[in-house]
Specification:
Shape: globular
Structural class: mainly beta
Distance between the termini: 20 Å
Helix content: under 10%
Strand content: over 45%
Number of domains: 1
Order of helices and strands: HEEEEEEEEEEHEEEEEE
Length: 267
């Protein structure tokens, strides 16, 4: 499921969403909020097992698929450190335009979910190859349509979880109705980590490509202003995220469905 929230994906409320004042959106953060940082012992990413799944994206009530991708998680070893390897391969289908394919390879620490490597390539010619060490992000990138390769060397204010896979955080902390947790997130477009609030609203049944699935409904809001960024529907088994909604600036909603790829179960 692992993409940049700003560029490819992840999820939404109803069409016509309007950001409400803080007082109208939600109560203040409860005192018993679980405050998570990268490396916190309260989070354990080892709940995620090797699997593969397919995501399809639609906008608003339209049935047209605007993009799709597959995610595959494998577990490996890097110098004695257990790591997650995520491989995401996708296609964008612009209305009346040429298809664009892309591939994203990411490595996280398997327990802490700390980003280690990020490598993205596109058929449009752009790429980013980054290594993350604590707060420092280094590597190279090239913007699509350009020939110049740029050096990247950024030091964040604090380590962050990858924003395009922010839905991994709540399950790794633990899901129970009423639970609230905060965590910093980061993406290659950011120079500072951004605080997010995840609120577990309870169980909900959602339609996933014609199948009713009971899942945990989780809201993700920006910590600074409480604006709703995504609504996730999560499972404690593959494919883990089955449905997501992300409000778009024009008031529409990006809807994502995710289903396990048949035969993808691994030991």
């Amino acid at each position: 499921m692992r993409l940049d929230l700003r560029s490819f994906r992840r999820f939404l409320p109803a069409a016509g969403f309007v950001a409400l004042p803080l007082s109208a959106q939600s109560p203040s953060t409860p005192r018993d909020t679980i405050r998570i940082e990268v490396g916190s012992p309260a989070l354990d990413g080892r709940v995620y097992k090797p699997h593969a799944a397919r995501v399809r994206v639609r906008i608003g009530d339209s049935s047209r698929v605007t993009s799709s991708w597959t995610n595959e998680l494998t577990i490996g070893d890097s110098a004695g450190r257990t790591v997650m390897h995520w491989v995401t391969k996708g296609t964008q289908y612009p209305a009346g335009g040429r298809e664009v394919t892309w591939e994203l390879r990411q490595t996280y620490d398997a327990r802490t979910l700390a980003p280690i490597r990020y490598s993205q390539t596109s058929s449009a010619g752009g790429f980013q190859h980054l290594t993350v060490t604590d707060r420092r992000v280094r590597g190279t990138k090239r913007v699509a349509g350009d020939t110049a390769v740029q050096q990247v060397d950024v030091t964040l204010d604090r380590p962050g979880f990858f924003a395009g896979a922010s839905d991994l955080v709540p399950l790794a902390v633990g899901l129970k109705e009423g639970a609230v947790m905060t965590a910093p997130v980061w993406s290659p477009a950011m120079t500072k980590a951004e605080g997010r609030i995840f609120s577990v609203l309870g169980k909900a049944t959602v339609d996933v490509e014609g199948t009713s699935v009971e899942s945990w409904k989780v809201e993700e809001r920006r910590e600074s202003d409480r604006v709703l960024l995504a609504t996730w529907y999560l499972l404690d088994k593959s494919p883990y995220m089955v449905y997501g909604e992300v409000p778009l600036p024009n008031g529409q909603v990006r809807r994502m469905t995710e289903v396990e790829i048949p035969g993808s179960t691994r030991p």
